[in-house]
Design a protein that fits this description.
By secondary structure, the protein is an alpha+beta fold. About 55% of the residues lie in helices and about 20% in strands.
């Protein structure tokens, strides 16, 4: 399982564990909070009505029938009220009154209850004892939606409790409000959960991103690409990336030195052996002609050693660069013309005809010196493998966001066995005209320049003969 997926699932488990109980608790206690909000005004109403009845009892003019007609009048007149989403069309408040023994002396809902003993009910019993009395009773046993809330207040006459007045209100209104609130509650929770899931996904992606970058970096290094260390955060992952980069540099430096020592030793063996043999022979008496031939051989092999060392130094400096030190706008046509000018003498010596196609407005960004050296290597190879009096074609082609520098010759091309080796250090093919080989470092140098500029070098034989070399580089749009 990927790290990002693990982080997301861990966050999801934590989210479910931390929020499932609070959400269930909040919903389960929501009804109780509604009941509390209703009980408070019921208590006020009960105390106001109890004080009114107590005053009438003290004055000796309390009439239960007259009190009942008030409720009958309320029932006759319609109530038109819209309380948020609740349409209220009637008064559902009930009142009953008991004496000091708990006997009912008035009931607004049912006059037949007068005379019944309510002293066992919690609201009446506690209030007669001088404490707060309230109860919730189901009108239909087993049906929670039929609950009725009863709140009582003492009826005081001459400073003593002369009875109990209870105000009762069905909880149907509360049930209606809860049913209306449930979709809103569910919608808000669902939206919050979706946002939380999205946040968890983003956090998981953000936490795993440096590791994915480091993995891609390692894979590209394994494939032989030269890539810089990707941007990482300042956490332990960033420290691991820095440690990884230092390890890579140490290993690369060791391998680099070992590889260069081995290849350089191998390449220097042949010219050194020739110089040593010629020097030993020069120590013996001989005619001037052979002596001059051996001296020329020593000079030639010495020049070859010097060229190998110089090229190796250039290539080692180039391979150790992770990016270009400087960038400038370079005109492709000017660049290729400078290369042709530098090769004018060699082209004239072999009587080679050159055909160019150089648009004037194509530019790129890079190191002009390195680009010129790379193109000069490609042109020199084309000259070396072209027959005398032959032809070279040089062009610059634009294709989307890239430029192609094309060098086309009409020589023998690359043999099939050499196609996978031409970019190796010190690998070289014999020149058709001289039978000699070059240092075998030119194409390797061209590839390093291409990589530094974010491009590539492609070689391919043409069906009609010859070789087509393409240096493919990112272009700089006109006007930038």
């Amino acid at each position: 399982m990927r790290l990002g997926t693990r982080i997301f699932l861990a966050n999801l488990v934590i989210f479910v564990l931390c929020f499932s109980y609070p959400v269930n608790w909040a919903w389960d206690n929501l009804r109780a909070r509604y009941l509390e909000s209703v009980e408070d005004p019921l208590n006020d109403q009960a105390n106001i009505l109890a004080a009114l009845v107590g005053a009438q009892l003290e004055a000796g003019r309390f009439d239960p029938q007259e009190f009942g007609r008030v409720f009958e009048r309320v029932d006759r007149y319609p109530v038109l009220a819209r309380i948020y989403n609740l349409e209220k069309t009637g008064v559902d408040l009930e009142v009953y009154l008991t004496d000091e023994r708990g006997k009912v002396i008035f009931d607004s809902a049912d006059a037949s209850r007068v005379g019944q003993d309510y002293s066992r009910w919690r609201d009446v019993r506690l209030t007669l004892q001088g404490v707060y009395g309230a109860r919730t009773t189901k009108a239909r046993p087993g049906d929670p939606s039929s609950s009725v809330l009863h709140v009582a207040a003492p009826v005081m006459v001459h400073g003593r409790i002369a009875g109990v007045l209870t105000v009762a209100k069905p909880t149907a209104t509360i049930n209606h409000m809860l049913l209306g609130f449930r979709p809103v509650f569910t919608q808000v929770f669902a939206l919050s959960a979706l946002f939380a899931l999205a946040a968890m996904l983003l956090v998981s992606y953000w936490l795993a991103l440096p590791i994915r970058r480091l993995t891609r970096y390692a894979n590209r290094l394994r494939e032989g690409e030269r890539v810089p260390l990707p941007p990482l955060n300042r956490s332990e992952i960033g420290e691991m990336g820095q440690a990884f980069e230092r390890l890579r540099e140490a290993l690369e430096g060791k391998n680099y030195v070992e590889g260069y020592v081995n290849t350089l030793t191998h390449e220097l063996k042949s010219p050194l052996s020739a110089i040593r043999a010629a020097a030993e022979l020069l120590g013996e008496p001989m005619e001037p002609a052979p002596r001059e031939r051996f001296l020329a051989n020593i000079r030639g092999e010495t020049s070859r050693i010097q060229e190998i060392v110089d090229r190796m130094l250039e290539l080692s400096v180039l391979e150790n660069r992770k990016e270009l030190d400087r960038r400038e706008k370079v005109s492709s046509s000017v660049l290729l013309r400078k290369v042709l000018e530098s090769k004018h003498a060699v082209l004239t010596q072999k009587a080679l005809q050159t055909t160019t196609s150089l648009p004037a407005d194509l530019t790129l960004e890079g190191d002009a010196f390195l680009l010129q050296q790379a193109l000069a290597n490609l042109v020199q190879n084309a000259i070396d493998f072209s027959p005398p009096g032959g032809q070279l074609e040089l062009s610059v082609e634009a294709e989307g966001a890239i430029l192609r520098f094309v060098v086309r010759d009409f020589g023998p091309g690359i043999p099939e066995y050499a196609k996978t080796k031409v970019f190796d250090r010190f690998y070289s093919l014999q020149r058709p005209n001289t039978g000699k080989k070059s240092t075998g470092l030119g194409l390797n140098f061209v590839r390093e320049v291409a990589v530094l500029h974010g491009g590539r070098i492609d070689l391919g034989n043409c069906p009609e003969g010859g070789l087509r070399a393409e240096l493919v580089l990112p272009r700089l749009e006109k006007g930038e």
